[in-house]
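[#protein-structures] MJ: dropping Cell wall hydrolase here for a structure pass
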Amino acid sequence: MKILLLCSALAFGLCTVPASASEKEALTLLKTERQGLQSLSQDRLQAMISPPTTSHEGMQFTSAWLDHQPKAEGGNEWRCLAEALYFEARGETVKGQFAVAEVIMNRVKSGRFPGSVCAVINQGTGKRYQCQFTYTCDGNAEKIREQGAFNRVAKVARAVLDGSAPKLTSGATHYHTTAVNPRWSKVYTQTARIGVHLFYRDTYRTASN
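AK: finished. structure tokens for Cell wall hydrolase:
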């Protein structure tokens, strides 16, 4: 009974205490789970408790459609994603911008990368040209000089975080522009080509499928 009460007190429906666990074991597991929940960002917690959005009616991958959407706003996760799209994909097509955002979210959900949008984007930052997203470690100041372009990609970020965008990359966790040919592209599975970007799913996921 105590174990059941403790589980329900955590909410979110995430209690994973085995039926055979002793009360002491249950308390230890619940403490670990509580700490894990507290470490998640507000945006990710909201995504976990919100029903999935499956309707994409009316969405168009065009600048005109974006321009008609309300101004986007949000917390740190939204800001990190919007900035990544600005520096990585503002010159891409709208569809390409959605695809790049999807790759970042696929990493967040994969378990093989950090568990938040900001952590995924800043992975490796501090080591020149050894980061995951070049703009975070190329030595150049990260200044947003084209506010109009930022406002548009911010709307893309908001739609992707809200789960209102259709999937485009078949689970891709990597991408590169057509101007380069990284070594890993020879062993990963290409899943899509959108605008000037090629998208790939890593071999780990391919094997597990």
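MJ: nice. The two ends are 39 Å apart (CA to CA).
AK: one more thing. Strands lie at 174-177, 189-194, 197-201.
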